[in-house]
Write a structure and sequence with these properties.
241 residues, alpha+beta, BirA Bifunctional Protein, domain 2, 2 domains, 7 helices, 13% strand
Length: 241
């Protein structure tokens, strides 16, 4: 069983353009040198096909207390690196984002602990749902007008949902992301699979691994790193160390 990781985040007013540049490794972010794939879609005509124009407008016109963007961060199977990667990412974006404006980037940094590839995709998207009405930027991000849609902004997909509905939607998105990865793994002849369920729901008794973070790893000695790796392997496979 491969590791499965799925996070959903959001950013407020003024954060979208900077995060877009981070995701796309633009400007000084390019020194990371870990960008594998990138793309965008469903942008309104006034952007000229430039995601930065879209996110700059979202930062400027989206209301102050609303989420300017949402972001999915999904771990991807390393065995699908190369040619099989783009079809998987495009399927994930199509199924999880749909018709909403989006930008994605796949990063492949090396793990701070073991040096292995950490392949994952960032998908930034707006909750504003296109409805076929052409709006200027300032109107697109204004409040939706149900009586006269053309006079208001695009409806937000996240509007009016209860906490229970939000939870159920997240579970469904996690499952869909895992199912798509498993479909592509099978298509390319790989036996490994991912599971979106918690360890408890999978019947696994071990505790979830603690995320150490690059700062803590940098402060660890070579001996501490080795002991941690051995303990992690033992916990995964039930081997007493």
């Amino acid at each position: 069983m491969a590791s499965f990781s799925f996070q959903i985040k959001s950013g407020g007013k003024g954060a979208a353009l900077g995060h877009s540049r981070y995701v796309a490794r633009q400007g000084y972010h390019g020194v990371r040198n870990d960008l594998v794939l990138s793309g965008y879609g469903n942008l309104p005509a006034w952007t000229g096909g430039n995601p930065e124009v879209f996110w700059a407008a979202a930062d400027r016109y989206e209301r102050a207390n609303g989420a300017v963007y949402r972001e999915l961060v999904i771990a991807l199977p390393n065995v699908l690196a190369g040619d099989p990667l783009r079809p998987l990412v495009e399927d994930l974006v199509h199924e999880l984002v749909g018709s909403r404006p989006y930008q994605y980037a796949v990063h492949a940094p090396s793990s701070s602990l073991q040096g292995e590839q950490n392949l994952h995709v960032h998908v930034m998207y707006s909750d504003r749902m296109p409805d076929g009405i052409e709006r200027p930027a300032e109107r697109m991000f204004s409040r939706f007008n149900p009586r006269s849609p053309a006079q208001g902004g695009c409806r937000k997909a996240s509007g009016g949902r209860s906490p229970m509905q939000v939870r159920d939607d997240l579970i469904a998105m996690r499952k869909r992301a895992a199912d798509l990865q498993n479909t592509h793994l099978a298509r390319h002849g790989h036996a490994v699979r991912v599971d979106h369920r918690s360890l408890r729901d999978q019947g696994v008794s071990r505790a979830p691994e603690r995320h150490l973070g690059p700062g803590l790893i940098r402060r660890m000695s070579a001996r501490q790193k080795g002991e941690y790796i051995l303990a992690r392997v033992g916990a995964r496979f039930g081997t007493p160390l």
